Amino acid sequence: MDPKYSIIVPMFNEEEVIEVTYGRLKEVMDRQGEPYELVFVNDGSRDRTVEIVNRICDGDANVRLINFSRNFGHQVAISAGMDYAQGQAVVVIDADLQDPPEVILEMIKKWKEGYDVVYGKRLKRKGETAFKKVTALLFYRTLRSMTSVDIPVDTGDFRLIDRKVCDVMSRLTEKNRFIRGMVSWVGFNQTSVEYVREERFAGETKYPLKKMIRFALDAITSFSYKPLKLATYLGFALSLFSFVFLLVVLYQRLFTNMTVPGWTSLLASNLLFNGIVLILLGIIGEYIGRIYDESKNRPLYIVKEARGFRGGTEAGERHER
Asked: I want to staple 190 with a disulfide (CB 3.0 to 4.6 A). Which of 5, 117, 148, 161 is the partner?
């Protein structure tokens, strides 16, 4: 029997929590009482995550495993899960149990009411530092102000999407992916379910500061070209300022007895302008780098092994073209 629901679980070094995650998800979906599949996507884990999930697969016919050849990233792991998912409703949830699996049942209710996308909206974030909370708040609101796409604030990748939305998402082949933004971009009838985000059950976060900065850059450059417009505006502003400053210097030289006291002011202005120019070149470089990634046309991911799917390892590898 074909599954009605597909639960996608991206994993990276989750040996401490994956069995508990499986148990919670199985309990919730058994309570729903309709056919389902649990799609675990191993994103190049270096611990015993794959071994544990393989053992779970041996004892549960509802469990699937996608095993990448290496680490391709969290957003790509979600994309692979969507490619392979066979359900009419597809749910994305992380393995760390910060997003309670029980909320899935509320999402399913909203889906049955006719919504195509049901995303989890966080009312509170437990166990996170003040720095993480403040930067997350600023990031989502900055992103929303910079793009024409209505990306909901205080949301993550925890969401349910309808089959037709999943099929559309599988046709979007960009390499630097921001899934929650892409889901908002495709449109359809969307709503939210509010919940309290829990502390991580075990292990450590897979998004340290470096990865969070990379993630934010991917989000902004994928859905906004305003940073490039900022470069243009700053260029005009600096040119105007420089022209006015030149007129002032010429006036002082020709019509006053004022002399230049030294090179300090000149050096300071040069450092300021050069710094701004380098920042703008960096912004332009980010966009050029993404164009370069797209032009190579490499596969979005490579699957080493896939268990439990009809058609074996070939099913769903649409991005390997």
From this structure: 117
One domain, residues 188 and 243: no
Neighbouring-strand partners of residue 40: 9, 65
CB 65 within 8 A of CB 307: yes
Note whether 35 and 176 are same-domain residues: yes
Where helices occur in the chain by DSSP H, the ranges are: 18-32, 49-59, 74-84, 103-112, 130-146, 163-170, 179-186, 209-223, 226-255, 264-296
Runs of H (alpha helix) within 85-178: 103-112, 130-146, 163-170
Q: What pLDDT is stored for residue 104 in this prediction?
A: 92
If asked whether residues 44 and 98 sit together in one domain, one would say yes
- Is the pTM of the predicted complex or chain greater than 0.85? no
Tell which residue, 311, 2, 1, 4, has the closest CA to residue 163: 4
Please name the residues in contact with 38: beta carbons below 8 A apart, sequence gap of 6 or more: 7, 9, 22, 25, 26, 29, 60, 62, 63, 64
The HSE-up count of residue 259 (CA atoms within 13 Å, CB side) is 2
Structure-token match 């009809």, residue found: 310
Q: How far is residue 109's CA from residue 5's CA, in Å, rounded to a whole number?
A: 13
11: nearest Cα among 21, 23, 3 = 21
> Of how many residues is the chain composed?
321
- What's the domain range around 123? 5-224+300-314
Answer with the residue of higher pLDDT: 283 or 77. 77
In a 13 Å sphere around the CA of 184, the CA atoms on its Cβ side amount to 22
Q: 160 and 198 in contact (C-beta within 8 Å)?
A: no
Report how many domains make up the chain. 2
- Are residues 190 and 69 located together in one domain of the fold? yes
CA 286/CA 281 separation, integer angstroms: 9
Q: Could you give phi then psi for residue 320, rounded to 5 degrees?
A: -90, 60
DSSP symbols for 290-302: HHHHHHH---S--
